[in-house]
């Protein structure tokens, strides 16, 4: 073999080895690509299964989900309305208390108290301001008290008024009334009738109630306690029909 032939042989051999090396590299790349394709196919299959599950949910549960979201919206609106009603009631009570205290400002706090209890305005009037002992007939000095209260009530025609008669626990003796129940009811009725007839408070807003000795605010074992318990309470309540109707929203009812 000539020198030129030997050189050509080595050149051809080096090309083959380079091609083999390149082929091995391509083969390795191909194997890696095939692994990646296998992984992608597996991932794609999982995604397809998930999409199928979502498709089932969208078909069978979409209406339920929509209804739930609507209910949540209704509940939120219900809470907002309820909050506004409560705030309005609290504001009205505050105005009532301020107006009543201003109107009754010249009367001793020992004889008449104005306060908010249980979401209602209570005007507690001592027995001696309105009635003689054991009697359901109003005394002359009661006119100034009831007139001042009636002015405020007539300025706020969106409130209801309950008049409650209260006694101590001492039984009635030698009186024209039967017992403390009878006395407390008679007194409440007298005040209600006076508010209607003399001071023009609408009777549709008025209620008379007798509590006898069964709602004391002090200990009946003491003289001062019994004196505190002998009282007439005027309980003022905003007309809350719409407020109470709101307590059960359509979403809750369903």
Largest sheet: 5 strands, mixed
Distance between the termini: 104 Å
Number of DSSP strand runs? 5
| Rg of Cα set | 44 Å
- Helix count equals 8
Broad structural category = alpha+beta
CATH class of one domain: Alpha Beta
Mean pLDDT: 79
Any idea of the CATH topology of one domain?
60s Ribosomal Protein L30, Chain: A
Q: Tell the overall outline.
A: rod-shaped
Low-confidence stretches: 250-254
Helix content: 55-70%
Write the element-wise H/E pattern from the N-terminal end onward: HHEEHHEHEHEHH
Please state roughly what percent of the residues sit in beta strands, choosing from under 5%, 5-15%, 15-25%, 25-35%, 35-45% or over 45%: 5-15%
Ordered list of secondary-structure elements with their pairings:
Layout: H1 3-60, H2 62-103, E1 112-117, E2 120-126, H3 127-130, H4 142-155, E3 159-166, H5 180-197, E4 206-210, H6 223-229, E5 231-238, H7 241-245, H8 250-253
Parallel strand pairs: 3-4
Antiparallel strand pairs: 1-2, 2-5, 3-5
Could you please describe the fold and organization of this structure?
This protein has 254 residues and is an alpha+beta fold. It has a domain at 110-240: 60s Ribosomal Protein L30, Chain: A (2-Layer Sandwich), CATH 3.30.1330. It is built from eight helices and five strands; from the N terminus they run ααββααβαβαβαα. Strands 1-2-5-3-4 form a five-stranded mixed beta sheet. Helix 2 packs antiparallel against helix 4. The longest helix is centred in the first third of the chain and has 58 residues, at 3-60. It is rod-shaped, with a radius of gyration of 44 Å. Mean pLDDT is 79; it is low at 250-254.
């Amino acid at each position: 073999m000539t020198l030129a032939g030997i050189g050509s042989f080595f050149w051809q051999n080096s090309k083959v080895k380079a091609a083999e090396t390149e082929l091995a590299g391509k083969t390795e790349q191909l194997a890696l690509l095939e692994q990646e394709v296998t992984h992608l196919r597996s991932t794609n299959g999982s995604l397809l299964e998930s999409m199928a599950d979502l498709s089932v949910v969208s078909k069978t549960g979409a209406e339920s989900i929509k209804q739930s979201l609507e209910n949540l919206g209704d509940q939120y609106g219900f809470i907002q309305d309820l909050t506004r009603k409560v705030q309005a009631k609290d504001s009205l009570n505050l105005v009532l208390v301020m107006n009543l205290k201003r109107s009754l400002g010249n009367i001793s706090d020992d004889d008449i108290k104005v306060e908010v209890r249980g979401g209602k305005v209570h005007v507690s009037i001592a027995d001696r301001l309105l009635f003689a002992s054991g009697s359901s007939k109003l005394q002359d000095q009661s006119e100034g008290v009831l007139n001042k209260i009636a002015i405020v009530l007539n300025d706020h025609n969106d409130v209801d008024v309950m008049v409650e008669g209260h006694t101590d626990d001492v039984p009635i003796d030698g009186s024209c009334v039967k017992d403390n129940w009878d006395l407390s009811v008679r007194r409440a009725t007298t005040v209600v009738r006076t508010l209607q007839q003399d001071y023009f408070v609408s009777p549709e807003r008025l209620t008379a109630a007798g509590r006898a000795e069964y709602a004391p605010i002090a200990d009946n074992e003491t003289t001062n306690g019994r004196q505190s318990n002998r009282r007439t309470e005027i309980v003022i309540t905003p007309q809350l029909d719409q407020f109470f109707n709101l307590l059960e929203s359509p979403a809750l009812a369903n």
